[in-house]
Amino acid sequence: MNMDNPNMLPETKKKVRIDRAMLMQTAATWFPMQKVVRSKEKADIKKLLCIMIPVILIFASLMAVIHSSVMIADANTEFEQLKNEEQELKEKVNWLSGKLTVKNDILGIEKIAREELGMVSETYLNQHYVPLLEEEGVDYYGSSGRYSVIASLLKELKK
Question: Are residues 111 and 67 both part of a single domain?
Fold first, then answer.
């Protein structure tokens, strides 16, 4: 045994030289493989995925931008409609408050006419006086036939 070199094998063991080309040929014969074909298919799929994924992401982001633009346009349209409706309601409030002011003015004028000037309302204008005795009288409010009311009142008073 040779002790000078530790990497040396003992003389009893022989070195086996492996021919790589021969080994591959034997392996291909005993174990048929389509390794080259599968590798090519996988490479084609990887290339397709590398192209399709960015295209899909760009398409999805464009769709998101378009969707948000449509949503903003709808919100702006609804906002404008609500502003117009608010303006119409403000105009209606102003018109109604004007009518209320006029009504309150008319009621105020009527109150002054009754209390200070001694005027009477329209319901009292159709009043009829039926004298029974010279010092007494009956007032009738309404616009029905005058003589039938007088006759019924006279009948009632005579009883």
Answer: yes
